[in-house]
């Protein structure tokens, strides 16, 4: 009796294809895709280190908390890699953010706020999410953030341009 591998390979391929096929049991409610969040970029009139420092000071002066400062360039160097200066400041105010997360628990994934300071081509920029896009596809309205999150962008722009 001669053995043929073709039926075995065909069976294995069909089994793998069945595993990879989307299940009819999944509903649209289980997996949704939201639109990409756009960023705003503001050129800083200061050097890189001063821009990072000024933003941290401005955030703290407004009573917000700096939760983390992530130096991507230092992390790259530690991994034996090189990249442009890039630091992310993670900040927020629990008094402002908590009611938003209570209203829409999924909104917690979008908080705290972040601002990237980066330098490319001799130009220092502050990059952050546009508030309108940050609240898009959420249970949060513009009125909910007009006196909180919306003001963060104004603070960033003012801090790096004045």
From TrEMBL:
Top-rank taxon, per record: Bacteria
Positions of the DUF302 domain: 70-128
UniProt entry tagged with the keyword Signal: yes
TM spans (from-to): none
Name of the protein this chain belongs to: Periplasmic protein
UniProt cross-references to Pfam families, sorted A to Z: DUF302
The keyword Signal is assigned to this record: yes
Keywords linked to the UniProt accession: Signal
Matching SUPFAM superfamilies: TT1751-like
Signal peptide as annotated in the record: 1-20
């Amino acid at each position: 009796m001669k053995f043929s591998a073709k039926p075995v390979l065909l069976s294995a391929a069909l089994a793998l294809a069945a595993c990879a096929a989307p299940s009819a049991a999944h509903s649209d409610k289980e997996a949704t895709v939201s639109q990409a969040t756009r960023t705003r970029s503001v050129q800083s009139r200061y050097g890189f280190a001063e821009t990072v420092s000024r933003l941290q000071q401005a955030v703290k002066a407004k009573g917000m908390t700096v939760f983390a400062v992530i130096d991507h360039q230092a992390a790259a160097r530690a991994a034996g890699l090189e990249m442009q200066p890039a630091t992310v400041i993670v900040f927020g105010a629990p008094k402002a953010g908590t009611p938003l997360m209570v209203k829409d628990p999924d909104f917690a994934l979008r908080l705290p706020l972040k601002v990237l300071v980066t330098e490319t081509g001799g130009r220092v920029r502050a990059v952050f999410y546009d508030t309108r896009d940050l609240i898009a596809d959420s249970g949060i309205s513009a009125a909910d953030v007009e006196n909180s999150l919306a003001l963060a962008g104004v603070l960033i722009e003012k801090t790096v341009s004045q």
